[in-house]
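Deliverable D4.2, example record:
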Amino acid sequence: MLRAPVLARSFARGYATSASPHALVFLEHYKGKLDSSSLSALTAASQLGGRVSGLIVGAPEELPAVLEQAKKVTGLDTVLHSASPQYTTPLPETVTPLFVKLLSTQSPFTHVVSAHSSSAKSVLPRVAAKLDLPAVSDITSVQHDSSSNSTTFTRPIYAGNAISTVRASDSIPIKFFTVRSTAFSAAAAGDAEAKTENVDPVHVPNPPTEHVSTSLTKSDRPDLGVASRVVSGGRALKNAETFKTTLFPLADALGAAVGASRAAVDAGYADNSLQVGQTGKVVAPELYMAIGISGAIQHLAGMKDSKLIVAINKATSFFSTYDPDAPIFQVADVGLVADLYEAVPELVEKLK
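Output generated by the structure prediction step:
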């Protein structure tokens, strides 16, 4: 385990000191539903041992439904909400001023937390920089020491091959961190309701960027990021049609999401939204099936925390992309050296 130097700085700003932690969690949502990764971030914030408040931003017409859902989530004491047309699709340039307003002098918050999502990991570092504070990203554990007012995190480095321990000392008045959602369970709904508090939006005149459109791949299968079962395919599947005809029946039989290695995505076999790995999505399902995947380091970084890993791979010739000595077998709980074009259809038949 690597131990990083203690984060410590001196600041000119004045902040209120707190006897116990008070975390502000950025709660993201889509189409009226809270994002599951934000609920995992809420679980991480609860482990600090103090109060937890949530912040929801959005368009005026969509916020009420999300707010009703957020009030019932276990672990939240207060839900702050701010509505503005500029928050319809939150952008770092439009949301940052609101955070700065909330975290200015005499702020009650000691920690600011979010999921390690593409949106939040753009917002939080920007807010931290505006306040001249450091941020810790993609943490997998958190522990707060009230006696020293320091917070210790662990986070993976070197594509998950090492774990870094980072301690944010009491000289950092507000500690920013993003959370790897697969490392924490999602907070569930409870019986109690959190208080709600409206926060006036901060209008940004002539923002330098604007949201043009969102393009999403539609699927009836479970979402890859939160699915309990995942079937992934690699470059050995030859082309997009073979990828589809081989993997989709198995995924449907298992009720699983479909994933792909970077090699398969780069070759055009699958959409980049299905990529699993260091530069794709990090998953940790109950079952992960790697079909025709050799197991490059960057791919292993995105799935090796899965509870049960099953690999199917075989070498048929010197130039084949199959390999019985592939790195995937080093992390697999179950390995089958077989021709996937025979093994996968047989599995589907038995599952039916």
